[in-house]
Amino acid sequence: MGHIRYASDVGAPVDAAFAYTEDFRHGPQWMYGVTGSEPMGIPHQGLGATFAVKFRLFGVIPLRTSVEITEYRRNAVIGYTLRGRVYGTVTLRFDPLGYERSVLTSEADYPPPRGMFARLCHGPVDAAAKSALRATESRLRREIEAFHGTDLVGRIA
Predict the structure, then answer these.
(1) How much of the chain, in percent, has pLDDT values that exceed 90?
(2) Phi then psi for 86, rounded to 5 degrees?
(3) Model-level pTM?
(4) pLDDT tens profile 103-142
(5) What burial letters (b/e) apply to 120-147, b meaning 16+ CB within 10 Å?
(6) Cα Rg, the chain, nearest whole Å
(7) Parallel, antiparallel, or unpaired: how do β-strands 77-84 and 61-73 relate?
């Protein structure tokens, strides 16, 4: 099982960071490779919300997958489970860090490759997954700060 974890400081309080992240309409702006998302029923937010997501794998291969929110605690954690040709989990945790600041922890878990060819490609796939999670975390941090109107040290942007 592959596991990746990154943490970063965000120049916004937990409630602002969480409010931005839980709104599915913002997903394509911060999720690496995602080109669109649509809700697949009700609810649109919170535990059990499901979305059809279009994305480009490695920036070129168009794919669709479904994403369900399988872990949700307001202002604390959102856990996404990807189902389809690309599958695994992504968990975003939000912790207070001080006045107008928070810590965003991004974690991804994905199954080990199966089959001979997949095992040969394990290194490049693992590197690509790390790069994608780092890009997602970095974009999300910037978008949260823009949404809140501050930068990392709390200055008004």
Answers:
(1) 45
(2) -110, 125
(3) 0.86
(4) 999 999 988 777 777 677 777 778 888 888 899 999 999 9
(5) eeeeebeeebeebbeebbeebbbbbbeb
(6) 16
(7) antiparallel
